[in-house]
Amino acid sequence: MRRIVLPSFIIVVAIILIARIFYLQIIDDSLKLQSENNAIKKVFDFPERGYIYDRNGELLVANQPSYDIMVIPREIKNFDTLDFCNSLKIDKEEFIKKVKKATDYSPRLPSVFLSELSKREYAAFQEKERKFEGFYTQKRALRDYQVAFGANIFGFITQVNEAIINKSPYYNSGDLIGKQGVEQEYEDILRGVKGVKYLLRNKYNKVIGPYKEGKFDTLAQQGKDLTLTIDYELQKYGTELMVNKRGGIVAIEPKTGEILALVSAPTFDPALLVGRQRSKNYTALYRDSIANPLFDRGLLAQYPPGSPFKILTGLIGLQEEVINTETGFVCHHGFSYGAGRFMKCHDSGLSKLNNGIYNSCNTYFCSVYRNTIDKFKNSSKGVDVWSDHVKSFGLGNYMGTDLPIGKKGNIPTSKTYQRIYPNGGWKGSTIISNGIGQGEVLTTPLQLANMMAVVANKGYFFTPHIVKKIKDKPLDKKYTTKNISTVDSKYFDPVIEGLADVYNKGTAASLKVKDMQICGKTGTAENKIRVGGKTYQLKDHSIFVAFAPKENPTIAIAVFVENGYWGNRWAGPIATLMIEKYVNGEITRTDLENRMLNGSLEDEYKKIENIIYQRFTETVTVDNTKQSLTLKEEETN
Amino acid sequence: MRGKSIGNIDWLTILLYITLVTMGWLTIYSASLPPEVTSIFDTKQIYGRQMLFILLSIPLIFILLFLDAKIFERFSFVFYGIGILLLLGLFVFGSTIKGQTNWYKFGGFGFQPSEFVKTGVALLLAKYLSFPQINLKNVKHQLIGFGIILLPIFLILLQPDAGSAMIFLSLIFVLNREGLPGWYLFSGFGAIVLFFVALKIDPKYIMLCIAIIMLIYYLRSRKVTRNPILFLFIFIIISGFVFSVNYVYNNVLESHQKDRIDVLLGDNVDVKKEGYNLNQSMIAIGSGGLTGKGYLEGTQTKGGFVPEQHTDYIFTTVGEEWGFIGSSLVILLFVTLFLRIISLAEKQKTKFSRVYGYCVASYLFTHFFVNIAMLIKLFPTIGVPLPFFSYGGSSLWAFTIMLFIFIKLDANKVNEW
């Protein structure tokens, strides 16, 4: 009995030891993680971000070196703090605060003391850098914008936030990432892939050599350059024309779907979002909720399109054979529908398709629309047929562009009206305002520009896109696939004639450019705001859509100017100038050009601001997407 | 006759010894590798010095094997006496390292007598117990037996080196084997367990539990033999012990000893201060996984995160670089060695050889257990070396001498009359 005490004890102890080691080595993973944090240091090699060019190879966005001042608190030696602060233009309190913050993080590890200094800001410090022990600089690249426009297209670069780090294993705290615009959409291509070096360090945090002879190390892959579809000259010109106005311009090359210009006004210099001032500037832009410079009106603003939508009403009427080019409706300065309801019209006499378009006759298009819907015994069926036609022009849904933002707009279907009129009893005349681009219809300027591209192409479009070429990588197939409209191409010719006559003798006759056939359509959209329970009628929005030249079109455009009175007062001239600039390269209508460049709608915007801020204490934000628009009684153009 | 006894040595034990020493050196090499690799015999390096110690132990082994086996029994009192003198001499000639006066310094090399005293104690204890009239049921004989063990413990506690002193307590296994009443061992373990339990749980509840257990035991025992006064006496002793634990912990233990207990029990531990060693040791072992990071590939070992890694913490390198498979293998090799020594001891014809063999197994096992258990948070941190593995000439030679005296005694058993 006594003989087995020690042997049994030894065996029991051995089993306990092995079991404990099994737990530590096989089951408990936390120790492995701690070991990695402990002993393996990852050093990243950040590749240079790809450049961005315009469609003709003009450099738009490059990189510039920037400098982070790093500090290792333990290594700070006595030096002239005043001198240090002066050379970095900070005060002593800030110095003390930042050193304390770094010390709290770790006295032994490097922390960022000041980040993203420009070359000029760094120069003063550089001369004296050696005197300040414990501080050193780390170089990194920032964006260097070659142009002062296009902030809405490019987006900007910012440090990754917690949410991104948790979602994507690629990013670490302090890494940079593209936000908004092509910087966000093409982040993977522009940024390249950072290289990683695994280093072994000892307990003093000193690197003692590569980990496993660098077996796991990877090389950095350079970011790829992007060539945009944007035309430098046109984008710049559009930005200049929109100074002191609010709105958007979208120009598309019809044959390819390439976006030639995407202007949103008011805008800002993209350089504001670079470097140390980024956060401050961004906040200022973000807080400006009335002018809302961060809101890309070309892509996001949803307005009732107004008269330009008559183009579709006509085309669908032809396709559904409820009219032909000779069908006429008599207009008595308006259109009677339902019991005593009347839509006014500035036109009179007999309207056919051609003069209906160039005179923008409400009576004519309301009749066409009513006949289209009422062609079917069931109004629901009629609306759905109409809705499908409209959607084949790219309206009522996301366009699928290669930009991270967009809006669907709205094209109603039978479901919309079944919800509004649950008891039925509605028909074409009930929803008549859709026929002239109001009612439930909402579009973005991008969608309108694309609609004009379909008309220019006589029945098809390519999904609008902003990147023309990526090195070593073909474009997404959806940008090279034709989308065919449900309206046959033979029906486009009479409508195009009508659009050309808008310039020849219609609502844009005053804008005619010598020796060029432009097809366009004016539009005006009423808008109101509700503040403090009261509704205020604001100046109408000015809308214009066009394409040119009539034969072999090279540009389709939509221009939207907020509170611009009526179509040919602001949007029309701007669209015409853009077309002339793009097609001819020079401007003959210098009178028009000067008026547009120097013209300002700031007084109008001031009035709105007064309504919102001065007369009422309630804070009200104007959401451009939801401005209440009611049936317009009077169609000016 | 003498030549013949060499031929009878136990080759399995020798093979285990060689394997452990070799693995030990390989591990020390990994744990002490400098940035520029030099010769393995470079005595400026730790691994080079350990190589020297290993090579010098070869002539030592031959001397031991060729000595007359009778010498160890006949001069056991002399060996013990030398040991005690060396311990006393420390108070005059010893060097103090980290507050402990337990080294003699000769030029570049140190010599730690407490390592060698273990063998002296084992020899004298074996000699004493082998007298035919000795019976460990006899209290007087018990006291002399304890006295042999307690004298060096007392001297070592004065150094103060509680860790080394504790190792001697393992000889209670030997006394138990040789007839010491079982309740000594039982109450010894009981005391250790109660000590830690009393630090965690309110003594009142512990005593309540013990009272219930004792009452049940009392009621179930035969009426003829049960003695209420004895039960009461035992209960009072245990109460006294349990209630004094907190006092001992707060007033008797040194602050570093308290820290080590706190670290084990996980009370308010700062892993940057008192908890650092244990935390890093667990990280190194735990990060080894199933198969380890590979020989010379241990990131924790290379980074020097584990302190004293080539001495008391050498097993962390085994755990990190060789993983669970390697750690288990080393543990199994040790266990095989211990069981082999015990089985050989049981076969001895003389009581002296048997007791000595048992002492060797008890010493080695206690070192092994205390050393590894402290690395994996099963036992408070106590600085004792892992036999044959840890760096150091004193410990290597002391364990070699201790083991090979037994191998010699074992080889000589056929010559006994």
Overview of this structure, please?
The complex is a heterodimer of chains A (637) and B (417). By secondary structure, chain A is of the alpha+beta class. Chain A has two domains: 42-226, Penicillin-binding protein 2a (Domain 2), CATH 3.90.1310.10; 232-626, 3-Layer(aba) Sandwich (Beta-lactamase), CATH 3.40.710.10. Helix content of chain A is 34%, strand content 22%. Chain A has 22 helices and 20 strands. In chain A, the strands form six sheets. In chain A, strands 2, 3, 4, 5, 10 and 16 form a six-stranded mixed sheet that branches. In chain A, strands 12-11-20-19-18 form a five-stranded antiparallel sheet, with helices on both faces. In chain A, helix 10 runs antiparallel to helix 20. The model of chain A is unreliable at 616-620 and 622-637 (pLDDT under 50). By secondary structure, chain B is mostly helical. Chain B contains 18 helices and three strands. Chain B has helices spanning 2-7, 11-31, 46-66, 70-74, 76-93, 113-129, 139-157, 162-168, 172-177, 182-200, 203-220, 228-252, 255-265, 276-286, 299-303, 314-346, 351-375, 393-411, and strands at residues 95-97, 100-106, 109-111. A three-stranded antiparallel sheet of chain B has the order 1-2-3, with helices on one face. In chain B, strand 1 (95-97) and strand 2 (100-106) form a beta hairpin. The A-B interface holds A 2-3, 5-7, 9-11, 13-14, 16-18, 20-22, 24-26, 28, 30-32, 34-36, 38-40, 200-203, 208-209, 211-212 and B 35, 173, 176-177, 179, 185, 280, 282-290, 297, 299-300, 302-305, 319, 323-324, 327-328, 331-332, 334-335, 338-339, 342, 346, 358, 361-362, 365, 369, 372-373, 376-378. Chain B: It is found in: Membrane. Chain B: It is a multi-pass membrane protein. Chain B: It holds the Pfam family FTSW_RODA_SPOVE. Chain B: InterPro entries: FtsW/RodA.
